[in-house]
Amino acid sequence: MIKSFLFDLKLKVKRMDKKILLAHGSGGTLSQQLIEAHFLPSLHNPILNLLDDGALINFEDLRLCMSTDTYVVDPIFFPGGDIGKLAVCGTINDMCMCGGKPLYLSIAVIIEEGFSMADLDRVIASIANTAKAAGVHVVTGDTKVVPHGKGDKIFINSTGIGHVSYSGTISGTNARNGDIIILSGTIGDHGMAVMSQREGLRFSGEIFSDVAHLNEIVRDILDVSSNIHCMRDPTRGGIASVLNEIADKSKKRFLIDEETIPVRPQVRGACEILGIDPMYVANEGKMLVFVAPEDAGKVLDKIRSHPLGKEAAIIGKVGEDSEGEVILNTLIGGKRILDRPTGEILPRIC
Amino acid sequence: MIKSFLFDLKLKVKRMDKKILLAHGSGGTLSQQLIEAHFLPSLHNPILNLLDDGALINFEDLRLCMSTDTYVVDPIFFPGGDIGKLAVCGTINDMCMCGGKPLYLSIAVIIEEGFSMADLDRVIASIANTAKAAGVHVVTGDTKVVPHGKGDKIFINSTGIGHVSYSGTISGTNARNGDIIILSGTIGDHGMAVMSQREGLRFSGEIFSDVAHLNEIVRDILDVSSNIHCMRDPTRGGIASVLNEIADKSKKRFLIDEETIPVRPQVRGACEILGIDPMYVANEGKMLVFVAPEDAGKVLDKIRSHPLGKEAAIIGKVGEDSEGEVILNTLIGGKRILDRPTGEILPRIC
User: Which of A84, B20, B158, B168 has the most CB atoms in a 10 Å sphere around its CB?
Assistant: First the structure.
């Protein structure tokens, strides 16, 4: 009986292994496995292999960056933003994280048959306003419509081209021993804003998404320091995922102090109620910066002088070489390994 | 009674006007209206306003082109190709149509939960093989997963960057009086291949999609003529849509001889059975070239010398200025206006 049950279970697991799961899109371990075991073996090339947020391209005398992202957030309107603003800011930020100045965007939409034209207009206006505010141009686009029930309202792909003039190397593989790790503000706002809207939850104090374009802050800090080694915006999977990814790729141990990580009280409260660690919750207007210790002070000051970076903080540093791990000094005084998420905590958050 | 019926109908139409219809994604009149009435008013800028297949960007001393397209074809595997090959060829061809040499691609997928990993691997291999054959590099990507029933197997966005070194101007606004119109081969193959696969139809003689990358042909003809004024690949909506679009934008009258347009017998047969005009059926490996008469011969020869262009033909010419119309000398000896399609003839063909 038990044997047969176990056999069935094994069979089920084996079958599940051969299907795409929601967790494959989580930004966590399964996402990484999907990319490394299925995409890279066929598509590998020196640029793609870096798996940074964007690709650094050397063409003739120019250094360009290219970045793509598709947005499938549910709901499409949430406190603090919408899928249009998210699509513009997200791809702008990915270009910034390569040290690029975002210049041009493409916007390609997949609309579900029956989607409201008024909602479409609202999304388009949001794309236009955000692009204008960020100083980027939407230069080309595409529109597809799929039958009702074969999509979900609207999905948006945005792909960007930026110009990289920074003299240093910025990459997820480039965190160096002794680097200071700066976080540009509070964590968890975007994920919990979407979550509360989706589930109709009411918390004490409304939670707004932090969705914002970071190109001004990035321009400012690249101006004051030529010792920035890595930047990353902690979206899907939160800062826990991103820190682990960089630690893995740079083969370092990171030491993070939990008490230095800013979290808004209402976000912390909502996370506690839902049993979610804010370290794993998506952000859409925050960044992690790895900078040589001698420049950490001026970079932190520069970030704090921008309205989007007032709550920036040093949250840790890069320790010695290792296989890639993130050690957290916890609030209660212990130490633990901060893992990547394996499953899907908050699906369709971006 | 009739009055009330008409009132109901009016109300229904009014309501329908405010929702996205499948036909908004057809590449026909409604697609054009959607873009001109909803996207352009917010997003307009000198580059986007041209509404060419790709955007021509002048950056520092370089002329680049950028093009984006999302592929939602159903079924994802069809005779002659699959969604992966289509995603690479389609965006390569759009860059070629701006006179660009395709260099870099991004690939962003939206996968439906439960999609078969084996099918994903097949699609990825097809992307990789096609990109390699075409000499372009996939430099960045994105993977999203949506819940079962909120997508349909896999949607792929590909966005490309190319380099434009051609001295002339190539644009849908640039067809000139007297230009010769060359079609690079048979029409309707892709649309009817997908259609027959989808509906499980059997025709006499199998129909294969023509999906192919045209970068070699385009490189060759740009080498032999500096008088190419417009190029376009007739995808959604077929050559009827594309000819109308160019006639509109260039403000010309086109004169087309139906008998010169190559159509495979099995495609013509399938179209007759289904009551579809092949002029409105999608192609994915064909192009229309508008060239000054003095260069038409050598451009035609060049196209015919390539395996993909053996059946190329001169199908008509650009007449005088007009509001933009396409006049067809029909097979039976009459003349008629070849209109854009208004509705959706073949949904999800690309």
Answer: B158
Mean pLDDT, 10 residues at a time, over chain B (350 residues)? 51 63 86 92 91 89 95 96 98 96 97 96 98 97 96 98 94 97 98 90 84 98 98 95 96 98 96 92 98 98 98 97 96 92 80
Mean pLDDT value of segment A156-171 = 95
Same domain assignment for residues A194 and A145: no
Of A68, A36, A155, A138, which Cα lies nearest the Cα of B106? A68
Measured CA to CA in angstroms, residue A266 lies from A183, A198, A269 at distances of 19, 17, 5
Interface subset of B 205-224, CB within 8 angstroms of A: none
Whether residue A309 has pLDDT greater than 80: yes
Dump the DSSP string for A98-130.
TTEEEEEEEEEEEEETT-BHHHHHHHHHHHHHH
Q: Which of B145, B154, B236 to mutate to test the interface with A (most CBs of A within 10 A)?
A: B145
Flag whether B16 is in a domain: no
More confident residue, B17 or A23: A23
pLDDT of B221 reads 98
Instruction: Give me the pLDDT at residue A52, please.
Output: 83
Is residue A173 within 8 Å of residue B100, measured between CB atoms? Answer: no
Count the neighbouring beta carbons within 10 Å of the beta carbon of residue B227.
16
Domain CATH for A59: 3.30.1330.10
Assigned domain for A174 exists: no
Note the maximum CA span of chain B: 69
Could you tell me if B76 lies within 8 Å of chain A, comparing CB atoms? no
Both A104 and A146 in one domain: the answer is yes
Q: How confident is the model at residue A1 (pLDDT cuts 50, 70, 90)?
A: very low
Return the pLDDT at B343.
73
- The number of beta carbons lying within 10 Å of the beta carbon of residue B265 is 10
Residue B236: which CATH number? Answer: 3.90.650.10
Within 8 A by CB and 6+ apart from B193, the residues are B78, B79, B80, B81, B207, B208, B209
Q: How far apart are CA A281 and CA B237, in angstroms?
A: 44
Q: What is the pTM of this model?
A: 0.93
Task: Name the strands in the sheet holding B55-59, side by side, starting at the edge strand that comes first in the sequence.
Answer: B55-59, B62-71, B154-164, B100-112, B137-146
Of B129, B163, B197, the last residue of a domain is B163
Lowest mean pLDDT among A76-90, A238-252, B192-206: B192-206
Residues B83 and B115 in one domain: yes
Residue A319 lies in a domain: yes
Which pLDDT value is given to residue B17?
57
Distance from CA of B298 to the nearest CA of A (A): 31
Alpha-carbon distances, residue A218 vs A138, A162, A224, B116, B122 (angstroms): 21, 13, 10, 40, 40
Q: CA nearest B112 in A: which residue?
A: A20
Biggest alpha carbon–alpha carbon distance for chain A: 70
Considering only residues 27 to 46 of chain B, which have any Cβ-Cβ distance to chain A shorter than 8 Å?
Answer: 31, 34-35, 38-39, 42-43, 45
Rg (CA), chain B: 20
**How many separate domains does chain A show?**
2
B59 in contact with chain A, both atoms CB, cutoff 8 A:
yes
Structure-token pair, residue A212 = 């914002």
CB contacts, 8 Å: B144 with chain A: 25, 70, 72, 155
| Residues forming beta bridges with residue B66, ordered by sequence position | B55, B161
- State yes or no: pLDDT of A4 exceeds 80: no
